[in-house]
Amino acid sequence: MLVGVSFGTNDLSRAVEFYDRLLGELGMVRTMKVDNEVGYGPVGGQSCFWILEPFNQQPATRGNGTQVTFKASSTDVVEKFHRTALELGGSDDGAPGYRYRPHYYGAYCLDLDGNKLHVMHEAD
Length: 124
What we know:
Elements: E1 5-8, H1 12-24, E2 28-34, E3 37-42, E4 49-52, E5 67-71, H2 75-87, E6 91-98, E7 104-110, E8 116-122
Parallel strand pairs: 1-4, 5-8
Antiparallel strand pairs: 2-3, 3-4, 6-7, 7-8
């Protein structure tokens, strides 16, 4: 069973500023900070997403084909998440829109280190 996912960063303070605001759009908050890592999760819940400086002290790199998908409560939240990522210095990697299935609405962006983020909402 998957417990969480982490992304490496080369500038933790800048990444924390980015993710504090961006994940706030989904109702996620900072749940922990120790040494060179910060965790995020639901209010009152456990961390499930971390950003960190790599333990081996080598530069953080992104994976080709790697992404993290976040679930949004509505298509408006998908759009706000994507817009906020771009306002904070992230890059567009797929504008908000319907894709894959009739009720699947999603968007893609890259964080400040080039890690791929996907946000989606699928109506019942």
